[in-house]
């Protein structure tokens, strides 16, 4: 017999309770749609860059510049597209109440990205993850 104080039971109970609450379920629906729309490219790029350990080539640099522009523009976006707007309005929410939350999400993502990369004045991008001691030997 399982104990009522079992953390697994408490977690399942909490999840069940949230999913039974229509308002909370609809909020989760909006956030999941937002993630599915906006996170794909961002996560794909980050996964790629975190796996690489070599110097950045020009095509990769262009991709980084595009990613930076994507993050920067969405930090202040006042509209996030028809798809997410329809999801929000179909659930009887006001899209303008969600947009500051979405902007904050992009702000956090931008700060995390900025902590791992920098755009130098020579228009070259370097990422801490790309640092490889053996590369220094090649340049000597």
How would you characterize the overall build of this protein?
There is one protein chain. With 140 residues, the protein is mainly α. The protein has one domain. Helix content is 71%, strand content 4%. The chain contains six helices and two strands; from the N terminus they run H-H-H-H-H-E-E-H. The protein has a two-stranded antiparallel sheet with strand order 1-2. Helix 2 runs antiparallel to helix 4 and helix 3 packs antiparallel against helix 5. The protein is globular and about 55 Å long. The protein starts with 6 loop residues before the first helix and ends with a helix.
Q: Strands, helices and their partners?
A:
Blueprint: H1 7-20, H2 22-51, H3 58-75, H4 82-90, H5 95-116, E1 117-119, E2 125-127, H6 133-139
Antiparallel strand pairs: 1-2
Please identify the structural class as seen in this structure.
mainly alpha
Task: Specify the biggest β-sheet.
Answer: 2 strands, antiparallel
Helix and strand element order: HHHHHEEH
The main sheet orders its strands as 1-2
The rounded distance between the terminal residues' Cα atoms is 68 Å
Q: Unreliable runs, pLDDT <50, ≥5 residues?
A: 119-124, 134-140
Helix content: over 70%
The fraction of residues assigned to DSSP E strands is under 5%
